[in-house]
């Protein structure tokens, strides 16, 4: 869900900037900062982004740079003329000389001579141009996400292949431990001098013990989960939560394998499998 998109464009007498940033989130968490002129369109922007982005902690910013010549304060010429006529009449009546720079300094302080704020209205044509920039920024973010997704898919494949390779490394230890268990039990029984035992019963108990430690089912289920994870990745968009659930199931099988591993070599391999799976779990949170 990580992504970034930006679009800039000249609209009327303004330069409009649109920026989108996205981070991980279980659902869509959209925060917006919009220039005053376009705030009336916030719900339209939110509706569009919700459909396009679906998930993620998203920051949306729309701001404006105005042309300095347009943004500058303007002088109300009619008001200046009105004030000037009145001041000239008063000057002649009372014999007060007011002219030049002194006259101008008085005029600019009079009410409504300098207009600093112009009331703007958003036209449909202008909004269509601005909304086009919103779409461009969203498309850029989605492209960024797609690139991140491809990189994650390669990473997941490496992790899965590594887990499969480690699973095969367990097999030699798995086969040899049966004989080791048998030898250890017989050595302990031999230490009990003067005690007779039924070898057939020993074989039965040994088989029961070995069956409890057997991990073939766990290996088979783990293989199925790995294949299902790959299939789900190939399904494309919107599979992030599903991949997370599959990773949890993989973790259960690896944990059970570890609990049944009664050899240090096997347990070390299980630890490495857990490490690979943990990397998957961390990154799967970043999948749509």
Characterization of the model:
The protein has 288 residues and is of the alpha+beta class. The protein has 3 domains: 3-70 and 123-140, 2-Layer Sandwich (Ribosomal Protein S5, domain 2); 74-115, no CATH class; 146-284. 65% of the residues lie in helices and 14% in strands. It is built from 9 helices and 6 strands. It has helices at 42-53, 68-71, 77-94, 100-107, 124-191, 199-213, 216-234, 240-260, 264-284, and strands at residues 3-11, 14-23, 28-34, 56-66, 74-75, 114-115. The strands form 2 sheets. It has a 4-stranded mixed β-sheet. Strands 5-6 form a two-stranded antiparallel ribbon. The protein is rod-shaped, with a radius of gyration of 38 Å. The relative contact order is 0.12. The model has no long low-confidence stretch (mean pLDDT 85).
What's the total helix number? 9
Q: What is the typical, i.e. mean, pLDDT?
A: 85
Outline the low-pLDDT stretches.
none
* Proportion of beta-strand residues: 5-15%
Name the helix and strand elements from N-terminus to C-terminus, one letter apiece.
EEEHEHEHHEHHHHH
- Helix fraction, binned, reads 55-70%
What does the largest sheet look like? Answer: 4 strands, mixed
Strand order of the largest sheet: 1-2-4-3
Q: Give the overall form.
A: rod-shaped
């Amino acid at each position: 869900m990580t992504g970034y998109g930006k679009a800039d464009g000249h609209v009327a007498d303004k330069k409009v900037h649109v920026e989108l940033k996205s981070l991980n989130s279980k659902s869509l968490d959209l925060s917006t900062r919009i220039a005053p002129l376009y705030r009336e369109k916030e719900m339209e922007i939110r509706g569009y982004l919700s459909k396009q982005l679906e998930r993620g902690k998203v920051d949306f910013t729309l701001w404006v740079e105005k042309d300095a010549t347009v943004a500058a304060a303007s002088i109300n010429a009619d008001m200046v003329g009105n004030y000037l006529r009145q001041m000239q009449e008063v000057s002649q009546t009372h014999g007060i000389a007011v002219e030049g720079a002194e006259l101008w300094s008085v005029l600019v302080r009079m009410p409504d001579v300098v207009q600093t704020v112009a009331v703007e209205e958003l036209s449909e044509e202008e909004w269509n141009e601005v909304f086009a920039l919103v779409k461009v920024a969203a498309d850029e973010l989605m492209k960024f996400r797609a690139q991140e997704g491809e990189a994650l898919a390669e990473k997941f494949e490496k992790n899965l292949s590594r887990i499969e390779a480690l699973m095969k490394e367990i097999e030699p230890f798995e086969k040899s431990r049966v004989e080791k268990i048998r030898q250890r039990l017989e050595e302990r029984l031999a230490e009990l001098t003067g005690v007779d035992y039924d070898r057939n019963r020993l074989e039965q108990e040994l088989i029961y013990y070995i069956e409890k430690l057997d991990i073939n089912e766990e290996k088979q289920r783990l293989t199925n989960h790995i294949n299902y994870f790959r299939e789900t990745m190939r399904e494309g968009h919107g599979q992030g939560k599903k991949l997370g659930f599959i990773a949890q199931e993989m973790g259960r099988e690896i944990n059970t394998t570890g609990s049944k591993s009664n050899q240090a070599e096997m347990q070390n391999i299980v630890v490495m499998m857990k490490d690979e799976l943990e990397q998957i779990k961390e990154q799967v949170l970043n999948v749509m």
